[in-house]
Design brief:
Structural class: alpha+beta
Largest sheet: 8 strands, mixed
Number of domains: 1
Helix content: 10-25%
Mean pLDDT: 87
Strand content: 35-45%
Shape: globular
Radius of gyration: 17 Å
Number of strands: 13
CATH class: Mainly Beta
Strand order of the largest sheet: 1-2-5-12-7-8-10-9
Low-confidence stretches: 1-17
């Protein structure tokens, strides 16, 4: 019971003060992106170029850039993109809340499905909805540039527990200032993590996190595309 209380307290604290607003960058607004801010947290800086590449600057800060996602994973299960880091946060332990900074992260969010949800997900759902709203994701997969993990290693989310997972792709100390192409099978990753076929995702998000280490990072991401 003590563990449950502490986790619920953590959910309550991380939910406080979340606000959605349009990003300052005009091109990001035109392309339908929104920014999720956190109370008492300095936000990141997001900017885009005409070629679509998005810069994510983090300076002892954290916030997320996100937009709705319409994709059929049965037809296009693979997600590809390119990213690079020009300045990296130090390696962190992505499994520990409050010590999980990362230079870049790409999130795919799935709606809550009570029929699929496990005991923990159903138990906390009413609290999460009360704090964050009905459209809060049920499950989340995050592809991460950060930490010090082997490529492809799965880490349980310290915030979402069994409802979320991080997949390490690039280490914090990977070579900088070079584009790295990635391709993941979101449907296969979902099944590997949650043990059942994926339902359809509904949000995609980009972020960096440097507030815990009070460090700085500069990263870029471009060419996001779902493929057969």
């Amino acid at each position: 019971m003590r563990v449950i209380i502490m986790v619920l307290l953590g959910l309550f604290l991380t939910a406080q003060g979340q606000a959605q607003e349009a990003p300052q960058d005009t091109l990001l607004k035109e392309r339908g992106w929104l920014e999720l801010l956190f109370d008492n947290k300095k936000p990141n800086v997001f900017a885009t170029q005409t070629d679509g590449a998005i810069m994510v600057g983090s300076d002892a800060s954290v916030s997320l850039l996100y937009k709705p996602l319409l994709v059929d994973l049965a037809q296009t299960p693979r997600l590809s993109w390119a990213w690079k880091v020009d300045r990296s946060v130090p390696p962190t332990d992505l499994s520990v809340k409050g010590k999980d900074d990362r230079s870049l992260a790409l999130y795919i969010s799935f709606p809550f499905d009570e029929a699929r949800a496990g005991f923990w997900e159903r138990f906390v759902r009413s609290i999460v909805v009360a704090l964050k709203g009905e459209d809060t994701p049920g499950r989340v997969i995050s592809y991460v540039w950060g930490g010090d993990y082997a490529a492809g290693e799965i880490i349980e989310s310290p915030y979402l527990k069994s409802a979320g997972a991080l997949i390490a792709l690039q280490k914090a100390n990977a070579p900088i200032s070079r584009w790295v192409s990635e391709q993941v099978n979101v449907a296969a990753d979902y099944e590997r993590i949650f043990g059942e076929p994926a339902n359809q995702p509904y949000q995609i998000a980009i972020s960096a996190d440097s507030d815990d280490t009070e460090s700085q990072s500069i990263g870029w991401i471009k060419d996001l595309e779902f493929k057969p």
